[in-house]
Amino acid sequence: MDAWTILLPALAMSTLMLISHTYLGLHVLARGIIFIDLALAQIAALGMSIAFLLGEEAHGLTAQLYAFAATLIAAFAFASLRRIKGKTTREVIIGCSYIVTTALSIMILSQTAQGMEELKSLFNGKILFASWDEIGFVAIIYLLLTILHWIYRKQFIALSFNSKQSTPGFLWEVLFFVSFAIVITLAVNIAGILLVFACLIIPAFSATLLSNTLASRLIIGWILGFFATLGGLWLSYTSDLPTGATVVIMFGILPVVSLIIKKFQNT
User: Fold this and answer.
1) What angle do CA 29, 34, 35 make, to 5 degrees?
2) What is the pTM assigned to this prediction?
3) Are 183 and 24 spatial neighbours (Cβ–Cβ below 8 Å)?
4) Which letter does DSSP use for residue 242 in this model?
5) pLDDT at 205
6) CATH class of 10-266
7) What stretches in the chain show pLDDT beneath 70?
8) Strands, E, within the chain: which ranges?
9) Residues 92/171/67/15 CA torsion (nearest 10 deg)
10) Backbone φ, ψ for residue 248 (5° rounding)
């Protein structure tokens, strides 16, 4: 079996994540709630941990429903963050959510024989072993969400990028976070917490260093993220390294690459 036969499913799943996550990452950066995706990813993992404790298969459909229920509750709570004054206060709430849910996951999984191995899996993911059926299902859901966000793009963009103007009502905020929760839940099940967070923030942040418009940042983020993913997958295969962690490290190089490109643009 050649390398790309093994790596192609992981590349396909990573590409789906890049397309949706970079867009959401730009929203997160614009709002100044950087760690909300990490918190949501950990909350999804908490739902899976509860399902695992109850005897369900950790990455099965029931565990996915538990994860979605957990992130849905969190989505409604996080949708209220706009009403809280002070960026620091919002970030503290998000940070506390992440820390507490991480501790709960560790506590829950410590009660099972394979719990610690499963915790490791939740962080690192299993993207190298993603099946085409899983990828196809994720692709359908992501496509539906993309259509939703395109049809109502004015409302969603206004939520994050028009802070000095009137913004849509609370129900639009809830809808944004619910769609965010769906994306996170599906991604964490396959890619793991670390890669999900990296994919959401790093390409988007790197793109903001090079451009000022939403459309160009989106395209630049996709391009940078794709090449980082490609390099990470290939390095993990040829050097027998953990796939998710290797891709995350390659993502970590992107801001440096952006700064170098920006320096040459200004000379």
Assistant:
1) 155
2) 0.85
3) yes
4) -
5) 93
6) mainly alpha
7) 1, 163-168, 267
8) none
9) -90
10) -60, -45
